[in-house]
Design a protein that fits this description.
The complex is a heterodimer. Chain A is mainly β. Chain A contains no helices and eleven strands. In chain A, a hairpin with a 2-residue loop joins strand 6 and strand 7. Chain A is globular. Chain B contains no helices and eleven strands. Chain B starts with a strand and ends with a strand. In chain B, strands 2, 4, 5, 6, 9, 10 and 11 form a seven-stranded mixed β-sheet that branches. In chain B, strands 1-3-8-7 form a four-stranded antiparallel β-sheet, with no helix packed on it. The chains are: A mainly beta, B mainly beta. Chains A and B meet through strand 5, strand 9 and strand 10 of A and strand 4 and strand 5 of B.
Chain lengths: 113, 114
């Protein structure tokens, strides 16, 4: 059973601070890792992906991957109220003939003005 | 429109009735996925297709649930003999490349079983 674990929050940070969102996964065969953002009442949308150990930066967002620890994180610098949403960690285990994308339960982030 | 379209957006049915949920993916997208999302939870995988072939149906909860994509475009998720526990948001997503993990989601179909 593939599992993706996230702290459900809510995580509250003041505007301008760094928000740190964490995710662990159970399947060592997992190869690809994703962060989706879901605003309240809306559908999820992809914001970051990472395949290799280390950091990947895109604007105010940095994804971090540590395969040995089976750990993925998302850092949001200079957090804005518009970043308030639920952040979903997702994982693909490739090589099994299926590219099933498994989601965590999500962490709700509130950025306080 | 250019996005993933789902219908109906809202469906209220009585326990024991069958329901069919429709998904029209982004034109040209090879892969189509069905997820179920309960309030406050992440999307739960149900099944996915590449073209018309059902690649993985391991997430379908039981044999009351089935899905098809006969011509490799529009897909239908059917739930037979609905139960109250089937009440949820059903989300369809499509992708041009299943390895990419980039899924484009529709607005969802909210199913309520009374």
């Amino acid at each position: 059973q593939k599992e993706v674990e996230q702290n459900s929050g809510p995580l509250s940070v003041p505007e301008g601070a760094i928000a740190s969102l964490n995710c662990t996964y159970s399947d060592r065969g997992s190869q690809s890792f994703f962060w989706y953002r879901q605003y309240s009442g809306k559908s999820p949308e992809l914001i970051m992906f990472i395949y290799s150990n280390g950091d990947k930066e895109d604007g105010r967002f940095t994804a971090q991957l540590n395969k040995a620890s089976q750990y993925v994180s998302l850092l949001i610098r200079d957090s804005q109220p518009s970043d308030s949403a639920t952040y979903l960690c997702a994982v693909i285990e490739s090589g099994a003939g299926s590219y099933q994308l498994t989601f965590g339960k999500g962490t709700k982030l509130s950025v306080i003005p | 429109g250019a996005g993933v379209s789902q219908s109906p957006r809202y469906k209220v049915t009585k326990r024991g009735q069958d329901v069919a949920l429709r998904c029209d993916p982004i034109s040209g997208h090879v892969s189509l996925y069905w997820y179920r999302q309960a309030l406050g939870q992440g999307p739960e995988f149900l099944t996915y297709f590449n073209y018309e072939a059902q690649q993985d149906k391991s997430g379908l909860p039981n044999d009351r649930f089935s899905a098809e994509r006969p011509e490799g475009s529009i897909s239908t998720l059917t739930i037979q003999r609905t139960e109250q526990r089937d009440s949820a948001m059903y989300r369809c997503a499509s992708s041009s490349d299943p390895e990419s993990g980039e899924l484009f989601f529709g607005e969802g179909s909210r199913l309520t079983v009374l």
